[in-house]
Amino acid sequence: MEKSVILPFLHLLLLLHLPNAAKSSINVGIGIGIGSGGNIPVPSGPSVPNQNNAYSALQGWKSAITDDPLNILDTWVGPNVCSYKGIFCENPQDENSTPFVAGIDLNHANLKGTLVKELSLLSDITLFHLNSNRFSGTVPESFKDFTLLQELDLSNNQLSGTFPTVTLNMPNLIYLDLRFNYFKGSLPEQLFDKNLDAIFLNNNLFSGEIPQNFGNSPASVINLANNKLSGNIPASFGFMSPKLKEILFINNQLTGCIPEGVGVLTEMQVLDVSFNSLVGHLPDTISCLQNIEVLNLEHNKLSGDISDVICSLRRLLNLTVAYNFFSGFSQECSRLFNFGFDFSDNCIPGRNMQRPRPECSVIPGGNLNCFRIPTPKPLSSQIFLHHFLDSHC
């Protein structure tokens, strides 16, 4: 069988044995991202009356900003909003129309205040960047009027409330950055059905389980680190877009196994599941991650042997497995000690800096079967899949 059919076959095998609810939410082969040639609507003229709306919106926002240590708002005077610092205008296709506000970039402005509903009057903007300010409160529901918005960066502020579902109503959004805020509650399923190329939700207070349709996301980068997410990594993880490059689950409360379908993500470069409570053996399908550069598994409860197929990954630059319960490794893995790879605080006999022997007498989840695709004949299916991948990855 040719290598080109391996991964579609694994997709099919996974799909056949997923619960019906998960099947209905999975779309195999999705994924349109930045540079894909999608048609983003461009205004043929300004919103009517664009300049007046922009003036009203920005002056209303200015009145809600209580601290401006860099004196940026000193330039926000008069009706010519295109002269305001941090405001960017474009000329419409209609040469007889006036320029319209197309973007806001106030990154690192250190402004303190709130986001006001009047900002939705800027309905033509495609970029809204507010990284590293001190905005608090919630994201206004009126932001649903940002129908042309492609990039929303609200990171490193003091925003709060539940996940701002208004972002799910922005049809052209491809970059969503909410990291380093105080958002809480569960992640909505619709988030992973949206055509986003980048999802940054790290360093918030999100909790609950990751939705089962997680694998629908076409994103190339997803960061869920430093939240309070719990439960298993969804089995649909193996159905994620083939363009997925980086995914970070660091420092949550995740349990269960690393899904077997991880091997489908052959373009992935960074996988970090550190500081969780994952258990069981490493799936052999990790051997298919031929482009992986960073594989961080530290501070979990993983066990078993670390095999040759993992340590021989050709592009691996950083393998960290410290603070687990691994009990052995292959000859290929032994050479990695000389490259500073961290195998400490495991249960590997004859190696320094391992766990005390009593801690290794009971392995967490030691009896757990981590092959997470239920089948009528699980043993034969496991043997077939492992043989298939081992022979062709």
UniProtKB/TrEMBL annotation:
<keyword id="KW-0134">Cell wall</keyword>
<keyword id="KW-0732">Signal</keyword>
<dbReference type="Pfam" id="PF13855">
    <property type="entry name" value="LRR_8"/>
</dbReference>
<dbReference type="InterPro" id="IPR001611">
    <property type="entry name" value="Leu-rich_rpt"/>
</dbReference>
<protein>
    <recommendedName>
        <fullName>Cell wall hydroxyproline-rich glycoprotein</fullName>
    </recommendedName>
</protein>
<keyword id="KW-0961">Cell wall biogenesis/degradation</keyword>
<dbReference type="InterPro" id="IPR013210">
    <property type="entry name" value="LRR_N_plant-typ"/>
</dbReference>
<keyword id="KW-0964">Secreted</keyword>
<feature type="signal peptide">
    <location>
        <begin position="1"/>
        <end position="21"/>
    </location>
</feature>
<keyword id="KW-0677">Repeat</keyword>
<dbReference type="Pfam" id="PF08263">
    <property type="entry name" value="LRRNT_2"/>
</dbReference>
<keyword id="KW-0379">Hydroxylation</keyword>
<dbReference type="InterPro" id="IPR032675">
    <property type="entry name" value="LRR_dom_sf"/>
</dbReference>
<feature type="domain" description="Leucine-rich repeat-containing N-terminal plant-type">
    <location>
        <begin position="55"/>
        <end position="89"/>
    </location>
</feature>
<keyword id="KW-0325">Glycoprotein</keyword>
<dbReference type="Pfam" id="PF00560">
    <property type="entry name" value="LRR_1"/>
</dbReference>
<dbReference type="GO" id="GO:0071555">
    <property type="term" value="P:cell wall organization"/>
</dbReference>
<dbReference type="InterPro" id="IPR051582">
    <property type="entry name" value="LRR_extensin-like_regulator"/>
</dbReference>
<keyword id="KW-0433">Leucine-rich repeat</keyword>
